[in-house]
Amino acid sequence: MKEIAASLFIAVKPDRVWRELAAFRHYRKWNPFVTAFTPDEDAGLAVGAKVELVMHLAAADGQRQVDQAITARLTKVEPEHELRWEHGSWLPGLLDFEHWWRIAPGKGGLTFHHVLRISGLMSGTLNDDYFAMYRAGLTAMNAALKERVEALEANRPRLTVVPGGLANDNADGVVNPGPPKPGAGRRAAG
Predict the structure, then answer these.
(1) pTM reported for the whole predicted model
(2) Assign residue 109 a region: left if phi > 0, alpha if psi is -120 to 50, beta otherwise?
(3) What confidence score (pLDDT) does residue 89 get?
(4) How far is CA 134 from CA 26, 42, 64, 178, in A?
(5) How does 145-160 read in b/e, with b if 16+ C-beta sit within 10 Å?
């Protein structure tokens, strides 16, 4: 058995990362490793559902590149925490892959864990270049995810509480004074 793992800290809340991971149709825009992730339309993200994935593998020298299309089965779905799937060769136990993303909340953000476990009788025949391409893919995806969600978070309008309990969600920073108070603006007779 061989395990490849890459982790990094991301300074956002778990729901922000999960929202980006669950926006599958946008992967091609930002994800250099998993360029397509298509869940079964009927089953969606549910344990046992099938997903179609395309993973872009590239050698460190840039000379060899391949897009690997696979059909996998979801084995764990915990929103804002973990997404796990597995796939393998036509003969179970020959070459099996288990792949997962885990979000571990922490102070000031979270740690994003990205893991690929390869097992089976044929796993020992895979050369170091194969594992290096996967390691590079995991690392590249993690870095791109971090860059994307932290940039989105930095550009997100903030909600500010102002006196009287009203909120300002205006991007221009103008405070919303709220509805006029009864009698406001009238002069007292006198």
Answers:
(1) 0.78
(2) left
(3) 78
(4) 21, 30, 13, 54
(5) bbebbbeeeeeeeeee
